[in-house]
């Protein structure tokens, strides 16, 4: 009896040690992941000369408002912010709609050429976006869309990754019995998608929406190529103008980067909460 209690106590102690070690590792990993963002905030509150000081200053300064004002005076921040928000929101809505519709079709319907089309889709995911920049620009020029928001939105309103992601999720999450029941009730393809598939696909839609919005918000190369009107610059292109030719005010640059990051944090916090809540609900149902 005494030996059994000692064994149980030893096992319990061993489990507690493993739990403490695991939490310490997770805390260290979290601290390492958050440090670049903390450094961004610190440098946004300091002068440019403080960035090169040694040892580095890790406490907040008093120059945040001055740096933000310098950003507003140096570039058309609010105009670029509005342009980026318009492009990112429109592209996100279109990607979520078209990719979920196409992914649901690939997952639950049979049609001629389905497998070859899906293979071609997977192949396009392996092609770097830089290779398509020149032909895409030529196409936009022939359509007369250079320096227009259509050139930013239309090419990105359907993505191979989005279709692949929604197809994989719909294959395992949308029961075939629901599809058959909907067909018996007289539902067409779009009604099956809208009334049956979409409620089940909400977690995948939340992830795809967050992923697409962040990608569209941070996109720099394609807007830099296609936009030549400063009034239509997106935020990333406008922020690149803060870098001077001979000198750069890094405090101002960091303040601009901080302002551009805040909407992403808000979107991520709101969307991830919905995303995690739906996953937890699905896990409980299982």
From TrEMBL:
InterPro entries, per database record: MetI-like, MetI-like_sf
CDD domains: TM_PBP2
GO aspect biological process, one term: transmembrane transport
Cellular compartment(s): Cell membrane
Main localization of the protein described in the UniProt heading: membrane
Membrane topology: Multi-pass membrane protein
Domain ABC transmembrane type-1: 81-271
Residue ranges crossing the lipid bilayer per the database entry: 20-41, 85-106, 118-139, 145-165, 192-214, 250-270
Keywords associated with the record: Cell membrane, Membrane, Transmembrane, Transmembrane helix, Transport
Gene Ontology CC terms: plasma membrane
Tagged with keyword GTP-binding: no
Family: Belongs to the binding-protein-dependent transport system permease family.
UniProt protein name: Sugar ABC transporter permease
């Amino acid at each position: 009896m005494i030996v059994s209690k000692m064994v149980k106590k030893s096992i319990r102690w061993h489990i507690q040690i493993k739990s403490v070690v695991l939490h310490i590792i997770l805390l260290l990993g979290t601290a390492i992941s958050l440090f670049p963002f903390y450094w961004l905030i610190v440098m946004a509150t300091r002068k440019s000369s403080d960035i090169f000081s040694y040892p580095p200053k890790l406490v907040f300064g008093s120059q945040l408002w001055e740096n933000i004002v310098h950003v507003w005076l140096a570039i058309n921040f609010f105009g670029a912010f509005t342009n980026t928000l318009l492009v990112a929101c429109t592209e996100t809505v279109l990607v979520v709609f078209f990719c979920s519709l196409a992914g649901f079709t690939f997952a639950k319907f049979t049609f001629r050429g389905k497998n070859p089309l899906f293979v071609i889709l997977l192949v396009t995911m392996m092609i770097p976006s830089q290779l398509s920049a020149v032909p895409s620009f030529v196409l936009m020029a022939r359509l007369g869309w250079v320096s227009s928001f259509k050139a930013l939105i239309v090419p990105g309103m359907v993505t191979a990754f989005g279709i692949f992601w929604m197809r994989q999720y719909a294959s395992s999450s949308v029961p075939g019995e629901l599809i058959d029941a909907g067909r018996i009730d007289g539902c067409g393809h779009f009604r099956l998608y809208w009334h049956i598939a979409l409620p089940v696909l909400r977690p995948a839609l939340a992830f795809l929406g967050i992923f697409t919005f962040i990608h569209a918000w941070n996109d720099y190369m394609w807007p830099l190529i296609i936009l030549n009107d400063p009034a239509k610059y997106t935020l990333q292109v406008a922020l690149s103008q803060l870098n001077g030719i001979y000198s750069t005010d890094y405090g101002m640059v960091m303040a601009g980067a901080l302002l551009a990051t805040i909407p992403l944090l808000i979107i991520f916090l709101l969307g991830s909460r919905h995303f995690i809540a739906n996953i937890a609900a699905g896990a409980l149902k299982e």
